[in-house]
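ABC transmembrane type-1 domain-containing protein (marine sediment metagenome), 234 aa
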Amino acid sequence: MSLPATEYLEARKSLWATLSSEKYFKWTLIIPLLLFLAVFMFYPLFYCLYYSAHNYVVVKPAEFVGWGMYRMVLRDPLFWTALGRTFRVLVTCIVAELITGMVVASLLNREFKGQNVVRGLCFLPLLIAPLGMSMFWSYMFAPQLGIINIIISRLGLPETDWFSPAWALNTIIFMHIWQWAPFSIFVLLAGMRSLPKDSFEAAKVDGASAWYTFRRLTLPMLMPLVMIIVLLRT
């Protein structure tokens, strides 16, 4: 009776040793993530692609139409209008978030009183759910009772309907930047605090200006993080 138990324990130890080896250990860590992506991302993606090639009605069987749906969408002017506006929002938000993140991260990278409080306040927008953020700014931008229009009217300026066709897209861009700029701020701040100080001290001794130091040292060293931000925000 002891022989099978011994063989079982030896086989189990051998399996664990194999999984713990350098060759297979990385796959042991990656496989759960791949399974998660397969269930919650890849399957819905292929499901959508399948039904995009079918004319689906709830009470009838799905009818295969091939590329018909895509041809219909590509010929619709509204599709290209929506695509152009989406591209405008994407580019504007990413550029503005990177610029804001770089400027604010440079300011927060200095030592000053209350720096932890300021960093915490900068991080707050990321903690607000998108629905809560939308409700918050809808009250702020309300045409008559919104705080922003009240301030504008007190300054003697004409009130603006921020959700009108002329301003709605810019309002959405502002709300998006307000919520997601802290992500760029803290990624770049973490990168700045990890940069080697020797290079910056040498540049300071050589009399390099702040702009030259940023352009020649800080920005090139932070480019990998900038690319990660662009990838994640796209």
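The mean pLDDT is 82. Strands lie at 54-55, 63-64. ok done for today
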